[in-house]
Design a protein that fits this description.
Elements: H1 3-25, H2 47-52, H3 54-66, H4 70-85, E1 97-99, E2 105-107, H5 108-114, H6 122-141, E3 146-151, H7 154-157, H8 178-188, E4 193-195, H9 196-205, H10 221-235, E5 249-256, H11 263-267, E6 279-285, E7 299-303, H12 307-316, E8 323-327, E9 331-335, E10 339-340, H13 350-355, E11 359-365, H14 376-383
Parallel strand pairs: 3-4, 3-11, 7-8, 7-11
Antiparallel strand pairs: 1-2, 5-6, 8-9, 9-10
């Protein structure tokens, strides 16, 4: 290589280093990464922090978050880790993704729950269930049906795709989890229950596929549509004023996982997930136009993240009035659209608020059994007479 060529190489490399350095101050062309992380605070420079080294450690953490082209380096590292080692890069915070064979992805917390025996206090749980039944009865006296939907865990439905090492020698079928322990008590108390875990086991045994997307943690949109049809059959006979119209599927498309069907694969932050993002069927619902909006039911949803696919499909079909949903019994959202509202739950007058609804539906995942509605039932039970 002649001297001119050498100088060109040095110049190009030097420009690249300058560009990377400049990106730390002016982060142009930095594509966002998926997921939530706690931002590293800016370092504090004083004689004490310099002497004990905390200033330099803080600066290293701060700079690592802002290094030029950081998104690219992170995605490249994740791509190599996933492609050649079949693993997800470990995260210091947030959701930990576990990689199974054939691109099946799981949340670590669901695996841990599936092989951890229940430790819930029986007296506390029975007291909570009494609140559930009391609220159900009070709503019924007002002509408002209540339905409790328990969403299944992907690990419990598809344990065969979880790497056995994560089960630590235990098998989900041999462990009595929180929900499995208290399901009989819910039924004995007469709770209007949609037993998602049992329903999905039945569907799987019957040969139904795609109940969960490989790259998602929630039930698939195809499975959620079937659940929504079941919900309609359960609620319509009990709703006195308005009923949900029939759902019509105009077509079913097949394509790479999208929206909530790809929430875990998106968390991998790969350069390109195309080879690993497997096709999923998607029901495309026709929005009914025969029934005016004011004659559609108003349904209050109190839910965790498994409720969003049901709500999305419900409003795609134009089968309910615009309303509000209560997410984790913390925040109110306008639906459809999922826009967060400023209203505080402590400001709600539950008596008139609930009476304007035709039904109340609660959705929680089976691993959330210990929370039993996040305080909703206790709060409403106290306010309703």
């Amino acid at each position: 290589m002649n001297r001119k060529s050498q100088l060109r190489v040095v110049l190009v490399f030097s420009c690249f280093l300058v560009f990377v350095g400049a990106q730390a101050v002016l982060p142009l062309f930095q594509g966002p990464l998926n997921g939530a992380v706690a931002a590293a605070p800016a370092p504090v420079w004083n004689w004490t922090t310099i002497r004990n080294g905390t200033a330099f450690r803080s600066f290293e953490a701060w700079y690592n978050e802002r290094v030029g082209l950081r998104s690219f380096w992170v995605r490249l590292d994740n791509e190599v880790t996933y492609l050649f080692f079949g693993e997800a890069t470990r995260r210091n915070s947030g959701t930990e993704v576990v990689v199974g064979s054939h691109d099946w992805l799981f949340e670590r917390q669901y695996i841990q729950h599936a092989v951890t025996p229940t430790t819930l206090d029986r007296e506390k749980m029975n007291d909570a269930i009494r609140h559930v039944r009391s609220v159900q009865d009070k709503l019924a006296r007002r002509g408002i049906p209540f339905l409790l939907i328990i969403a299944p865990s992907k690990v419990e439905v598809y344990p065969e795709h979880v790497p056995e090492v994560y089960f630590e020698g235990r098998k989900p079928e041999n462990i009595l989890t929180d929900y499995e322990q208290y399901r009989p008590a819910l039924l004995a108390a007469g709770i209007n229950l949609y037993d998602g875990p049992q329903v999905f086991k039945t569907w799987k045994k019957a040969g139904q596929r795609n109940l969960f997307a490989r790259g998602g943690t929630h039930w698939s949109y195809q499975a959620a549509f079937q659940v929504l049809k079941d919900v309609r059959e359960r609620l319509n006979p009990q709703m006195a004023r308005h009923q949900m119209p029939p759902f019509f599927e105009k077509e079913r498309t097949v394509g790479p996982a999208k929206r909530m069907d790809g929430d875990l694969i998106h968390l991998l932050n790969l350069i390109d997930d195309f080879p690993f993002n497997h096709d999923q069927p998607y029901p495309e619902l026709a929005a009914q136009k025969e029934i005016p909006v004011e004659q559609l039911p108003r349904i209050l949803w109190v839910h965790d993240s498994f409720g969003w696919p049901l709500i999305e499909l419900l409003y795609n079909a134009n089968a309910a009035q615009p309303d509000e949903s209560i997410y984790y019994f913390r925040n109110l959202y306008h639906i459809p659209g999922g826009t967060r509202l400023d209203t505080k739950l402590s400001e709600i007058d539950w008596e008139p608020y609930l009476e304007k609804h035709d039904a109340v539906v609660m959705v929680w995942t089976e691993i959330a059994t210990q929370y039993l509605g996040w305080g909703f039932f206790e709060a409403v039970d106290e306010k309703l007479k």
